[in-house]
Amino acid sequence: MKNIISLVNSHNAFLVKNDKWQYLKNPILELNLTSLLENNISLKNIIVPFEQWLTVNNNDTNASSAHHIRAFSIENTTDVSLVKPWLDMISLIVLDFPHFTDGRAYSQAVEIRRHLGWQGEIRANGHVLRDQLSHMYRCGFNSFAISDDRDPVETLKGLQGISVLYANSVTDPEPLFRRRLS
Q1: Once rounded to an integer, what is the mean pLDDT over residues 78-85?
Q2: Quick one: CA torsion of 45, 49, 52, 54, rounded to 10 degrees?
Q3: 3-state class (DSSP) for residue 94
Q4: pLDDT in tens, 113-134
Q5: DSSP code of 115?
Q6: How far is the CA of 30 from the CAs of 18, 51, 90, in angstroms?
Q7: Burial environment of residue 75 by CB neighbours within 10 A (0 to 12, 13 to 18, 19 or more)
Q8: What domains can be seen in the chain, in order of their start residue?
Q9: pTM of the model
């Protein structure tokens, strides 16, 4: 991925210069894993579709290779609670916005943060637009893959727009009136 905005381990958003993660999007993941291993390509920086990873993980031939994977991409039709058994072994979850009007990934991010308690990197991918970044962050996303046709510097400004928010969120669990009382 080329244009990544990150808030991982920081309250200040920044552009990632060299993103280490690479997508592996092939319906025949088993062949790709074998090929990658044969070519000594590290699997720990590969983002694998979760559903395909489950298939490989359940296959005795490639199961040990599958455990080297440290990042999943999850379709917005997938029940994210299925990821729970493997949360301690991964570093990145990528949630997809196939269209800017499809907000299911917002709900997935909230579920991963609040109900599964995961604190790792959640990346928004797909139709990620400037005016959505603040809300994505409040739902639990802490990195954003910006498409090549968008200016990442301009998009970054989407996180600087609103300084005080009334409602609670993943980032501020208490609503404003409770924060003012404390």
Answers
A1: 94
A2: 80
A3: strand
A4: 999 999 999 999 999 988 899 8
A5: I
A6: 27, 12, 19
A7: middle
A8: 3-181 (3.20.20.70)
A9: 0.84
The span from the CA of 130 to the CA of 152, in Å, is 9
How many Å apart are CA 84 and CA 88, to the nearest integer?
Answer: 8
- Helix, strand, or coil (residue 72): strand
If we measure between CA atoms, which residue out of 126, 137, 155, 112 comes closest to residue 15? 155
- Side-chain-side CA neighbours of residue 159 (13 Å): 22
Whether residue 27 contacts residue 53, with contact meaning beta carbons closer than 8 Å, is answered with: no
Tokens 């924060």, residue located: 179
**Count of positions (residues) in the chain:** 182
Contact 26, 34 (CB under 8 A): no
Instruction: Decide: 14 and 6 in contact? Cβ < 8 Å.
Output: yes
